[in-house]
Amino acid sequence: MGAYGATVRIHGFSGLYQDGDGVGVDPKYALEAVNVETAGGVLQSAARCEHLKAEVAGPIGTLMRLHRRWHTADSEKDVLVAASGGQLYFMPPDGDAWTRLQTPEGVEAYESDAWSFAAYEINPEGTDAPVDVLLLSNERDGMVCVRGDTMAVSRVPTPKKFGVIARYAERIWGGAIADNPDMLSYSAPFDPFDWTQNDGLPEDGAGDILQPSWDGDSFLSLTQFGAQLLALKKRRVWRILGTDPGEYVFREQYGGGVAAPATVAVAGERVLMLGEEGLESYDGLSVEPYGRPYAKGVFARMNRGAIHGACACLHAGRYYLALPLHDSPHNNAVLVYDTRERSWLLREGITVRAFLSTDQGLYFTSATEPGRVWKWGEDARRTGAASPARWVGPWMELDEKNARKGGWTVYLTVEAEAPAELWVSIRTEKKVRTKRLDVAPSGRRGELPRQRKLVFGGSGRRFRLEIESRGLAAWRLVGGIQVDVEADVG
């Protein structure tokens, strides 16, 4: 056939796709996409996260939010609550110091910093409006209540010490009981302090349900999903229907359970969670693998001996999953799934022990830096602080395995607010060739950045495009990429 020219055009970008052998995949996908963003199809550097100035002495095991609708000034309606070193602390999201909360009478320090929590309200006598409260519980300390008006902490008498709690049908439910793993308990309606059974009117009282599996499994997570409550074990999922004890229906669902209870999050019409081999989804009928081909390589790198500590949350339409990769004993990377664009991206260089989604942003506590709370970086161009990034495209053969490709010309337009450096490479099965691209900031406001042309020599049967930034300057590609290549069949 002889020599001919071919053109590869990437009009937009869409995160990871790691299934198969990485050959012949749509070039909008990446084999690797670390610390980049592809929102709207635009490839750009991801923003660095920023830590809050205030710190506590020890590691923060749980980060919570208490929203106070009454009894406080508008500027103080939201507070962060942190558990560290057997104590609880609070601070406004923009505060500069944590304040320690007094422990209940007779308690010098809590035994655990791993709390399950739920927002609720109470109606104490002598107040002109309900009081927002934060209920916390763990299997060692039991349940306590933080009042939003006074920030006083009191014990909540419960029949068992619950490892997990949730609000459903105006009751507080508790599970993960150390000495009774098959039991779920529920409070009286509208009163989280009343755990007494009402024999005359069961619908007005508290109670419990036993759902044994006889295999040593335990309830690990409770999550409200629409008009039902999901009770998850490691190998099973049950759903509870009904609003009072006379109507409760307990049904086991098809599929497996959850490997890491802190990864359960409701994402629209499904619940996402981490299983032993990757992400799982519950859609109201069964638990099934979800989206694994897109991040197959990431899930293959998980340290399965440490995934019980993985955590996740849904924030602004994105599912953030912190998990341990390689031999790490703690979460050292975050896999981000955009539920609207259905794209997958990986963030490295971030350690997470717990997430918290708020109206002010996404917060998380560090797994390696004791006492610090970080705020997720959303827009690198706005903050001017980006993370070192790497994007690796799929292998391309141009439908001609026997053709020798070479003489690549890459056209791209890069925009930056400050001087930036990119390393653009063409890799073949034999060698990689790299060119450094210096990007100057745009001049006058509204002025378009100029298109750049990079020419690469060499040859190979297959090739792929790689883009890397090593500095902290923010950048983005405008209008996609075009690669012209010469092929020779003969």
Structure explained in plain terms:
This protein has 490 residues and is an all-beta fold. It has 2 domains: 2-29 and 36-45 and 389-489, Jelly Rolls (Sandwich); 52-289 and 303-315, Methylamine Dehydrogenase, Chain H (7 Propeller), CATH 2.130.10. It is built from 2 helices and 39 strands. The strands form 10 sheets. A 5-stranded antiparallel β-sheet has the order 2-33-38-35-36, with no helix packed on it. The longest helix is centred in the middle third of the chain and has 5 residues, at 296-300. The radius of gyration is 26 Å and the shape is elongated. The N and C termini lie close together (6 Å). 40% of the residues are buried. The model has no long low-confidence stretch (mean pLDDT 93).
Quick rundown:
The chain is mostly beta strands and 490 residues long. The chain has two domains: 2-29 and 36-45 and 389-489, Jelly Rolls (Sandwich); 52-289 and 303-315, Methylamine Dehydrogenase, Chain H.
